[in-house]
Automatic annotation (TrEMBL):
<keyword id="KW-1003">Cell membrane</keyword>
<feature type="compositionally biased region" description="Basic and acidic residues">
    <location>
        <begin position="12"/>
        <end position="31"/>
    </location>
</feature>
<feature type="domain" description="Major facilitator superfamily (MFS) profile">
    <location>
        <begin position="37"/>
        <end position="451"/>
    </location>
</feature>
<dbReference type="InterPro" id="IPR005829">
    <property type="entry name" value="Sugar_transporter_CS"/>
</dbReference>
<dbReference type="InterPro" id="IPR005828">
    <property type="entry name" value="MFS_sugar_transport-like"/>
</dbReference>
<dbReference type="Pfam" id="PF07690">
    <property type="entry name" value="MFS_1"/>
</dbReference>
<feature type="transmembrane region" description="Helical">
    <location>
        <begin position="78"/>
        <end position="98"/>
    </location>
</feature>
<feature type="transmembrane region" description="Helical">
    <location>
        <begin position="175"/>
        <end position="198"/>
    </location>
</feature>
<dbReference type="Pfam" id="PF00083">
    <property type="entry name" value="Sugar_tr"/>
</dbReference>
<feature type="transmembrane region" description="Helical">
    <location>
        <begin position="306"/>
        <end position="326"/>
    </location>
</feature>
<feature type="region of interest" description="Disordered">
    <location>
        <begin position="1"/>
        <end position="31"/>
    </location>
</feature>
<keyword id="KW-0813">Transport</keyword>
<keyword id="KW-1133">Transmembrane helix</keyword>
<feature type="transmembrane region" description="Helical">
    <location>
        <begin position="140"/>
        <end position="163"/>
    </location>
</feature>
<dbReference type="InterPro" id="IPR036259">
    <property type="entry name" value="MFS_trans_sf"/>
</dbReference>
<feature type="transmembrane region" description="Helical">
    <location>
        <begin position="359"/>
        <end position="377"/>
    </location>
</feature>
<feature type="transmembrane region" description="Helical">
    <location>
        <begin position="110"/>
        <end position="128"/>
    </location>
</feature>
Amino acid sequence: MPLCHPRPQNKPRGDSVHHSPPEEEITPARDTEHRRVAAATIIGTAIEWYDYFLYAMAAALVFRQLMFSGLSSGASTIVAFLTVGISFLFRPLGAFLAGHYGDKIGRRKVLMLTLIVMGTATALIGLLPTYETIGAASPILLITLRIIQGISAGGEWGGAVLMAVEHAPVRQRGLYGACPQIGVPAGLLLASGVLAVMSQIAPGDAFLTWGWRVPFLLSFLLIIVGAWIRHSVEESPVFVEMAELAETESAPVKTLFRKHSPLVFVAALIFAGNSAVGYMTTGGYIQGYATDPDGPVGLSRDDVLWAVTGSAVTWLIFTLFAGWFSDRVGRRTSYIIGFILQFLGVLVVFPLVNTANVGLFFLGIGFLTLGLGLTYGQQAALYAEIFPASIRFSGVSISYAIGAIVGGAFAPMIAAWLVQTTGTTNAVTVYLGAMTLIGLAAVLSLRDRSGIPLGPEHEAEQNVSPIRWLSRT
């Protein structure tokens, strides 16, 4: 498998791909720009999701003790995970705002803004006083900053994936689109890795006193790095062409829902099937469940953090593979295979976690990431190819945000409630299995549009609905 920024190849596509675009002439200058965009989307999204996942992990490991200490142990756990989910309710707002302005003023400007907003909110969390210091003001400020993170995350993903896919060679959209996708497991890897390091530097009470703050304050530095990298890339060629032709929509969100509401719904369910399962680790649930001293597993915090860090590596690898694989067999086929493997991962993860054996714990979450990667790497290309150019930023951002609410938003809280109610993780397995099957059904409802032209001059073709039972939007 090639790296994320390979030299373009001129190999023919498989039979499952329905479009056969003409070969592109790739000059050295364009090849260099492709590589620069790929690197920028990986690093930028990794920084954004580092910020976002850091909160989720801290909610399980720190905030339930420091910010919600006025509640009982069980209630503080549920409320801590509730604050993780609250941010998802504001991601559609970020998606609406970013989609509107991304389709009107460009992808690049919106991405710069989301990076700065996310990083600032994250760093400020690292400066927050605890409940013992300022009482109820502490959780209120924490929730406020988490909401700001949610708004930023809602706008980040759409811009990043469109920069990658719209810059990409036609025959390698899946691979290049996987670049911002691997920023997600890279962010998880970075967040869990930094927390694991700080847990060793500041063990025991020192971690709760000051050690947890360092990863949040590190975001100040990451803002500078990310902004510099994103400033170096050119605007999406599709948006440049739209601006030159004066074909930007005056109200892209309104047009999206008027013409493509069923497509938004189907696209959202595809991501919901992935995110509900993914947020077992990215949302901090498995970390909290496995380290709970009163729970059935009782693993050490260090062991769990390092295992999750290792699983982030396997997730990253299979996410990148999924993008490459989808260029060979089509987005739809690669998704079907991915959801089947994800379903198998759901069936085995909690039985292995519940053994309280570190090696089997890692095996369980590592196998789960195989399916997660194979239902995530191709998502950027699939989303870009199913929405018309003039409303594409709005379409991919809003679908992603809605899918995150339906799937991942409250998955950790639901899992915690199911375990407390039933006393077993079997109900969680049923819940995650059902969400996986919903994602699979949504994929089966779509035609494969791999390779469809993305430029504004092909809007008529793009406006034909990819939903199998609809001929037009």
